[in-house]
Design goal:
Elements (H helix, E strand, L loop, with lengths): L5 H7 L6 E3 L2 E3 L9 H8 L10 H4 E3 L5 E3 L8 H11 L4 H4 L3 H15 L1 H16 L4 E4 L22 E5 L3 E12 L6 E4 L14 E6 L5 E6 L14 H4 L3 E12 L3 E4 L2 H40 L6 H26 L2 E2 L5 E2 L2 H26 L2 H4 L3 H5 L3 H8 L8 H15 L2 H12 L4 H11 L2 H11 L5 H9 L1
Parallel strand pairs: 1-10, 5-8
Antiparallel strand pairs: 1-2, 3-4, 6-7, 7-11, 8-9, 9-12, 10-11, 13-14
């Protein structure tokens, strides 16, 4: 128990987990080139003595021990602000452990239906926290034919389901897709992908199991190759993380690890709770990325001597508007937090969904602005190897010169980051993630319709139109 070191974390991954990548079964991911960058990225979050963010990473628990702050249940606005700061300096391999925030936020609701499952949530939360483990958000089913319900599919396993219940636990079968860092964590926390009806009881299931549990297999895919040049790929070389296609082939889940097993009235509640924290993480990343876009746009314009061009200034103003709207939305969501009966606080649901929708709906246009300012060099800039070549290099330095105070290497680095973030390996991943992480645009529309005070808006509209409330109008007529 207690805080792990980066070395302890790496060693903990040698547990017999079944992992595939590019047609190869990988028995020890800690020694395989494919996992070098993802493991190193996640291991940094175990550096609790680091001068920069070591103190931010840990907090004192109610038991007097220390744990990673990703497990701190916020109970105040200050706690939320600290969590936002933490996630700005945390790898996705650790951030996904926020799945336990979702579970802790619905624990009271679960207790009203099945107290034993609520106890399991609390126990597993403390187990992962106190042993400094990482847990993945395992939510999205293949879904098959979207026009049909889970139990109506040609193959009943297209949604994760319970295939048996016995004295030891439940046996589950199915698959979950797009599971970020599945091969890099210790626990797979399975959540319902959506609400279920009474005739879909076997699909209303939630639990946590170790990654190396018998019957679990993970098939990996990443946006980046195993090794990339840091000069040419300043983002992808350091931030690649595999997405897991997680298969459950008749996996036994002990009863003390079960959070939901047929309680259909809770399925959508669990799914929505995870959506909130996923979208919060997405907005935090959006704030960081949008500010980076403003900086890159300004730099590329200055390097070309166009920083005072009215068209350029107007375009940068558009990027600033996008960045500031996101920053203010996140700030509003935390300042106007909501609170559960347990005392746990969480970001304003409407504000987070509106912010995530704004981020996703305008992301592609924002990138277009950056590409418009940058020009064709985003795609055609020569590689570092050519820059270092004794014959080709001088040509590159000669013809990429713009002004005496602009270093050609600096200019190339700016272009490389723009390409990597928006038009290459990391950029391709980010285009899809901005839209789909935490649910597509329709998911945010649904939540905004559910949480916005439509009744108050209608009342104000009626008053502005001069329409009197019917009860008052009837009283006036009677008088």
């Amino acid at each position: 128990m207690g805080l792990k070191t980066p070395q302890h974390y790496v060693e903990s991954l040698r547990d017999g987990r079944v992992t595939y990548w590019d047609g190869e079964r990988i028995d020890d991911i800690t020694t395989h080139p494919r996992f070098r960058v993802p493991i190193a990225l996640t291991a940094v979050d175990y550096e609790y003595d680091a001068a920069d963010y070591g103190a931010l990473r840990r907090y004192r628990t109610e038991d007097g021990g220390e744990a990673h702050r990703i497990y701190q249940v916020p109970t105040s606005e200050a706690d939320l602000a600290t969590r936002v700061e933490l996630l700005q300096h945390t790898s996705i391999g650790t951030a996904v452990s926020g799945v336990y925030m979702a579970l802790m936020s619905v624990k009271d609701d679960v207790a009203q239906v099945n107290p034993a499952c609520a106890t399991n949530i609390e126990r597993m939360y403390r187990y992962c926290r106190d042993n400094d483990l990482r847990a993945a958000e395992v939510i999205t089913d293949p879904k098959g034919d979207r026009k049909r319900r889970a139990h109506e599919q040609d193959d009943p396993d297209l949604y994760v389901r319970i295939v048996d219940r016995n004295a030891d636990g439940i046996v589950v079968r199915g698959a979950k897709l797009h599971i970020t860092a599945a091969s890099l964590v210790h626990e797979l926390v399975v959540m319902p992908t959506k609400g279920m009806r009474q005739d879909e009881k076997d699909y209303a299931v939630s639990f946590s199991i170790p990654v190396n549990t018998k019957g679990v297999s993970i098939i990996n895919r990443s946006f980046a190759p195993a090794a990339l040049n840091e000069f040419d790929y300043p983002a992808s070389a350091h931030h690649s993380m595999p997405e897991g296609f997680v298969v459950f082939d008749d996996v036994l889940v002990p009863w003390d690890r079960v959070f939901l097993a047929g309680e259909v009235q809770l399925a959508s509640r669990l799914a929505q709770s995870l959506g909130l924290w996923e979208r919060t993480g997405g907005v935090i990343e959006a704030v960081r990325l949008s500010e980076l876009f403003v900086g890159l746009a300004q730099l590329v314009s200055e390097h070309q001597g166009k920083e005072r061009d009215p068209v350029v200034m107007n375009t940068i103003a558009e990027l600033i508007t996008y960045a500031e709207m996101l920053r203010m939305s996140l700030d509003y969501a935390c300042r106007h937090f909501e609170q559960a009966p347990s005392g746990m606080v969480f970001p304003n649901v409407l504000a987070i969904n509106a912010a995530k929708y704004f981020y996703a709906a305008n992301f592609h246009q924002t990138v277009r602005h950056l590409h418009d300012l940058s020009g064709g060099l985003v795609l055609t800039l020569p590689l570092e190897a050519d820059l270092r070549h004794p014959e080709a290099g001088p040509y590159i330095r000669k013809y990429l010169h713009t002004k005496p105070d602009v270093d050609v290497e600096d200019r190339m680095r700016v272009y490389n980051l723009i390409r990597d973030l928006t038009a290459d390996a990391y950029g391709g991943w980010q285009f899809v993630v901005a839209l789909q992480a935490g649910g597509g645009l329709s998911a945010q529309r649904i939540m905004m319709n559910r949480t916005y005070d439509l009744a108050r808006a209608k009342q104000r509209a009626l008053a502005a139109a001069g329409v009197k409330p019917r009860a008052a109008a009837k009283r006036q007529a009677a008088e």
